[in-house]
Design a protein that fits this description.
With 343 residues, this protein is mostly beta strands. It has one domain (44-332): Neuraminidase (6 Propeller), CATH 2.120.10. It is 14% helix and 37% strand. The protein contains four helices and 23 strands. The chain has helices spanning 4-30, 35-41, 205-210, 257-264, and strands spanning 48-49, 53-57, 66-71, 79-83, 90-94, 100-107, 116-119, 124-129, 140-146, 156-158, 161-166, 176-182, 185-190, 196-202, 213-215, 217-222, 228-233, 239-244, 247-252, 294-297, 303-308, 316-321, 325-332. The strands form five sheets. Strands 1, 2, 21, 22 and 23 form a five-stranded antiparallel β-sheet that branches. Strand 3 (66-71) and strand 4 form a beta hairpin. The radius of gyration is 25 Å and the shape is globular. It starts with a helix and ends in an 11-residue tail after the last strand.
Length: 343
């Protein structure tokens, strides 16, 4: 006869196994989320964009015409903006509600028609002197500067590189107010109706040092967007937003944009930016962004700046206009809970 302690131990062990098995069966039948499934839910695509919410006001008097906005990579809670054409070459640091944090003058830059600001993963800021309202400018410039300390003692920063570029001669010239940077390339969205065009410019420091004029590479049309006044890309390269005076678009990509470019290019045919195609019809090119974007009609005054709000997984956008107002728009996901109605 076995000791009663051994029998008791076996009984409780079997009972524990049965309980765990029952729990697993119930979990499978009820569709409970496993750790793997839980990870995948964080990558669900948004299904809509929320209404804009007024969250603040740009309080720096010198920031008269905010024409670009981007989240800092080095200083949490900091966003960089700058003025449109006709102003000093300066950067303004603000928080998410528009409160002024710092003001930095740029040495080695001119503000002919600054239209957007972008940032790369290393914390280098890029200012796009890319405006061309009269279509008279053939050569445009992107300035690069290491992100300064917005609260530091130094109130100036020096441009580290200047990238001069032109659109393909056969395409003509364009007005452009939207730019974002990713993996050594500046992506430009033209301000046109009915369809915007997407180009990119190689940000090779060697080309900058030699003073070379870089030819922009045509990447096709950006479906849905028109009259674009600002743009941004999230840190992982999968979410692109484009803003206009009448609406906002969000493109949810399957892969980072540089991977889409690499996959779409034919190995036997170089990027299509030849100089022989007629000006009325751009040279043949791949269409990189093929997804249907989320869109929301908004009228937020002269809104010319948008960026993804800082965060590991961007879920909201900040927008500023030349009337100094700051707005937030959120991504709406399918599992978002609706507010309960009070009876």
């Amino acid at each position: 006869m076995k000791p009663p302690e051994t029998s008791r131990l076996r009984f409780w062990t079997r009972l524990a196994v049965l309980v765990v098995a029952a729990a697993l069966i119930k979990s499978a039948s009820s569709g409970s989320v496993t750790p793997t499934q839980k990870a995948s839910t964080t990558t669900k695509r948004a299904t809509a964009l929320s209404r804009p919410i007024h969250v603040g006001r740009l309080d720096q008097p010198a920031l008269e015409e905010s024409s670009g906005l981007v989240a800092s990579r080095k200083y949490p809670g900091i966003y960089w903006s700058m003025n449109d054409s006709g102003h000093k070459p300066e950067l303004f640091a603000v928080d998410s509600k528009g409160k002024g944090i710092g003001r930095i003058g740029l040495t080695g830059a001119r503000n002919i028609d600054w239209e957007d600001i972008a940032i790369d993963a290393d914390g280098v800021l890029y200012i796009g002197d890319i405006g061309n309202n009269s279509r008279g400018r053939k050569t445009l410039t992107i300035y690069a500067v290491d992100e300064p300390d917005p609260k530091g003692k130094s109130k100036t920063a020096t441009v580290k590189a200047k990238y001069h570029f032109r659109y393909p001669a056969a395409h003509g010239t364009f007005d452009c107010e939207a730019m974002f940077v990713r993996k050594g390339w500046a992506y430009l969205i033209t301000k046109e109706k009915p369809k915007a065009r997407l180009y990119r410019v190689c940000l090779d420091p060697v080309l900058s040092a030699k003073g070379k004029i870089i030819q922009a590479e045509y990447l096709g049309l950006l479906g849905g967007a028109q009259w674009v006044t600002a743009a941004d890309i999230c840190p992982d390269g999968r979410l692109i937003t484009a803003l206009s005076y009448l609406g906002i678009w969000v493109y949810q990509l399957d892969k980072p944009i540089e991977n889409l470019v690499a996959a779409a290019k034919s190995p036997t045919q170089p990027a299509a930016t030849t100089r022989t195609a007629p000006a009325t019809r751009p040279a043949r090119a791949i269409r990189i962004v093929q997804v249907k974007p989320l869109r929301r009609s908004v009228m937020l005054g002269q809104a010319e700046a948008v960026c993804w709000e800082a965060g590991r997984l961007p879920k909201s956008l900040l927008i500023t206009n030349e009337q100094r107002r700051v707005y937030r728009i959120k991504l709406v996901f399918p599992d978002a809970k609706r507010p309960s109605r009070s009876r």
